[in-house]
Structures are given as C-alpha cells and as structure tokens.
Structure to design on (600 residues):
C-alpha cells in the first residue's frame, strides 16, 4: 500500500485515540478548551504515524496488546509535540499569530493561558502514558517513555528551542549551529517516535541503532524541506522566485545555502536514508522508505 | 526530635540529591544555567521534606533501597514545583520581578528562555523519575509517579494556576472559588508529596485515605498562612496594620475574610488536621503533627 494511504489509516486511528485520551472531564472549562483547541487542530501527526509504522514493520502487528501500547506512546508524543508548538508560538518566542491556518493558541486564549495549556498537555502526556504503563506492566514500555522524555527535554527538543532563540537574537547562525539546533528541535522527537515503536516491537540493539541513524536523517530532511516550503511560499507571496542571492531574514537552511543547494542537500540526505534502510532492513522497510519521499515531496 | 531539626536534615539530603540529578552535562549552557538558577534558589523544599517525613513515619526507614525511591520522587516533585514558580512569575501571568529574594528567572534569562527553563525542568522531572523507575522496577514507584503527574497537571496544579489567572482578570473571586483554586494550586502538590512517600512505604488504603484528608487541610493551611504573611508584610511596608476593613487589592483569604478571621480559620484548620492524625495515627504521627505548627507559625 502507498505510504499516503497507510498514513491516512494511522491518522484516523491516532486522532480517535487522542480525543479519547483528551476528554478531560475534571479539567476547568477554559483550560480544557485551550488544550483541545490545539490538539484538534491536527496536522499530519507525523510522530504518531512513525510509532505505528515502525511497530507494524517490525512484526508486532499480530500482538493486540502491544499494538495498544504503541498507540498510547503515539498519543503521548503528539501531546508533547502540540505543547511545544503552543510555547513556540508565544510572543516571547517566535511570536506567530497563526498555526495550521487558525489563530495560534495565545491569540484565542491569551498568553498566560497558552503557557498553562502547554504545561498541562506536557504533564498530561506523562499522566496518560503512566496510567497505561501501570496496566501493561511492560519494561519496554517504560524504556520507550524514558526515550521520549529524554528526546523531548533539556538535552533534546527544548535544548533546540532554547538554542534557536539565542541564535535568532544574536544573528550568529552558522552551518554547525543550524544542524545542532535542528538535530535537537526536530530530529530528536522523530527519533523518539521511531525508537518508541521499535522498543515495543522488541527490536534488537542492531535494529535500534540503524533506526536511530535513519531517524536523524529523516529529521534533518524534514527541517530542510520545511525551510524550502517556507521560502517558496514567501517567494510566491512576493510574486517572485528566490534565488541563492536573495536570502530571507530568517536563519534557515535556505538562507544559509540558497534554495537550489538546499534542494540538493535534501536529495542527498534522502538517498543516504534510503541506503541505510536498504542495507539494514532489506525485506520489510517499505513504509519507512516511503516516508522519505512523503516528507521530501510534501506540499505543506 | 523537633520538626525544624528534622527538616534541616531532610533539606540537606534533598538539596544534595537534587544537585546530583541536575548536573545536566548534555544541556546547552544558557538553558542549564537557567534551570539551575531556579533550582538552587532553594527555599524550604517543603514537598520533598513531606515525602521523606511520611516515608520515615510509616516504618520504611530500615529499607535502604525504598528510601532511595522516596528521595527520587522527592527530587521530581521539587523540579515540578520549581518549574511552576518560573511560569507563574512570567509577565503574562503574575508578573513578579523577584522570587526568594533574587530576580525571577525571566528577569535574568529573558521571557522565552524562562518558558523553556520551566518546560525543561518539568520534562526533566519525569526523565529522572523514569530513569530511576527502570532501575527499581517497583509498581508502587510508578503508582506514586502517576499520583504526582495527576496532581501536577490539568486537573491539579495547572488547573489552579489557570483558574487563578481567570479570577484575577475578572475580579470575581468568591469563597468557593478561592478554596477551589488553592485546593488545586497548592494542596494538590502537597498531597502528591505525602501520598508518594506513603505509596513507597507500602501504606494501606485506609492510611492513604486519612493522609489525603490531612494533606488537603495542610495545603489550605499553607495558603492561608501565606496570605497572612503577605498581608502583614505589606502592612509593615506601609507602616500600619491591616484590619478587616482594609482589604488589599489581591484576591486572597485575607482580602476575603480580613486578617483576624483568616487567622481564626487557620487555627481551626490546624486543629482539624491534628485531630485527623491523632485518630488515624495515634502512635507515630509526631512529624506530621509538628508540620502543622511549622507551617502555621512560620515567618516566611
């Protein structure tokens, strides 16, 4: 089956599970509305799809209870991703008024409530994962939770956000810094998703190591194509195309390399990621190989 | 031994463990500094003291590994408490420039970095607790973690913070709302601390239920005395004493009841909390009984 079709199935499955996990009967109305506003805004739900895709790929499909565990981790990851977007959009960080075609959380609920909606989603991710963990009583599940906490935290995603903010303020971004930031800000959470699915499927150490290297490439590919899409969107808005000499103000892979070279870099990383899968998972990596093109050729 | 003396011992023990847990070798310098700035600012570390006090009281003192588990949860709770103060002080929430006699986190590191320092501390709390959980492999430890997540999250502490912000903005605080906010904002985290220590000590259902009721009273007592201390501090600054008719602008137990009645309410709650302990733990509740006076009669 085509990756887009598989992802549609995963998306429906994850969205249903996520809304069940986010009913919040005991949560005060405004906080609940703020949390659900951003959770329901949706998007591609790439991280949860990766959890399920890796789990299914590694032969876990037949074990119903383990599939549930993968789904629970997928929901936790999506809550964490959603909180990070709310805090990233705040006026004191990126100051973005719009997110996924809707006003960003703080434009609707106010800045203070947006801070709390993010805090609540982050805590809720661990609350729900722990609730399920106590039912499953599976050490691999807790190992996956720890992987998620590490990659989401002070040495992972939040580190990337903090460094990004410093670089924006100081205008001192170079190539090494750009890679360092996006390894943490973007690649770490995709890696957490891929490894979480692998842990639950009982992957071997060799498999985990190969998947980690693949995930790192997928994360960089995601960020570079994101920057390319932004640059082409901006160019369209300005009624002209951006060339290497017309760098925008924002510090991105496009502003660093220019549009053409950024596209070449993306192609190169895609080839490397595919080669990694071909040599480590020669028989069953259709989904993960498909994800490379899905990410590289997406339109938003 | 006097409660103050016991708490001094606990404080030293917790501070040492907390600084070991917060070395953060992989965390970028600015983020690490921002996290440690607030963690090291210290304070009474009431929540960690309660974890250890309840654990020791319920006879767990002799089991070395379980004592370590209690200490690990104590550190997690303190990281969560610290993050909540950083976010509460933000300009878009309480806008406090000072905390524990030092400039608040965002005054030193900037608002965006303060948001991230809080996010990082919250995530780190779960990261460290999960790391230790995998070593201990004890279901009661994970039950305690879940209690902490619930009480810290969208139906606990963050709910209280969100409601407090609404009440401040709308100036519509009444007595029921005031109790509702502080049950969540203050009492829930003290309850989490007390129950965490009790879980690890293997407390019975009856004991847990009695401790939960005690913790709720201790939380309200803490908040009322906090409001009294604030009011008396303000009065001292203005060179006069506050009476029932001179309510300050902030919505507190003192602004609601007046100073004298607030003090009477505090005394009443203290008597109830003590009676609860006397009937449920007639033999070994010295520490928890002492904590009532420690909280009620403190000077800051």
């Amino acid at each position: 089956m085509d990756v887009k079709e598989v992802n549609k199935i995963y998306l429906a499955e994850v969205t249903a599970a996520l809304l069940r996990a986010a009913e919040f009967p005991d949560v005060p109305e405004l906080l609940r509305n703020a949390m659900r506003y951003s959770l329901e805004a949706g998007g591609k739900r790439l991280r949860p799809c990766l959890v399920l895709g890796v789990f299914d790929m590694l032969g876990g499909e037949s074990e119903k209870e383990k599939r549930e565990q993968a789904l629970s981790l997928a929901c936790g990851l999506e809550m964490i991703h959603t909180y990070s977007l709310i805090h990233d959009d705040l006026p004191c960080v990126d100051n973005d008024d719009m997110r996924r075609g809707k006003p960003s959380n703080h434009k609707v609920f106010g800045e203070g409530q947006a801070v709390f909606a993010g805090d609540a989603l982050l805590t809720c991710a661990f609350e729900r994962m722990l609730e399920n963990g106590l039912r499953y009583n599976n050490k691999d599940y807790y190992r996956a939770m720890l992987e998620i906490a590490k990659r989401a935290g002070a040495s992972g995603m939040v580190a990337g956000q903090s460094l990004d903010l410093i670089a924006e303020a100081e205008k001192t971004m170079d190539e090494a810094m750009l890679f360092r930031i996006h390894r943490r800000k973007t690649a770490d959470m995709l890696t957490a998703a891929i490894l979480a699915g692998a842990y639950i499927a009982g992957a071997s150490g060799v498999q985990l190591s190969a998947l980690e290297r693949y995930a790192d490439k997928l994360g960089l590919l995601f960020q570079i194509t994101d920057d390319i899409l932004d640059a082409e969107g901006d160019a369209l808005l300005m009624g002209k195309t951006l060339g290497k000499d017309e760098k925008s103000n924002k510090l991105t892979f496009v502003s660093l390399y220019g549009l053409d070279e950024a596209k070449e870099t993306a192609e190169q990383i895609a080839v490397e990621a595919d080669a990694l899968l071909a040599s480590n998972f020669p028989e069953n990596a259709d989904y993960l190989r498909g994800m490379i093109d899905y990410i590289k050729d997406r339109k938003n």
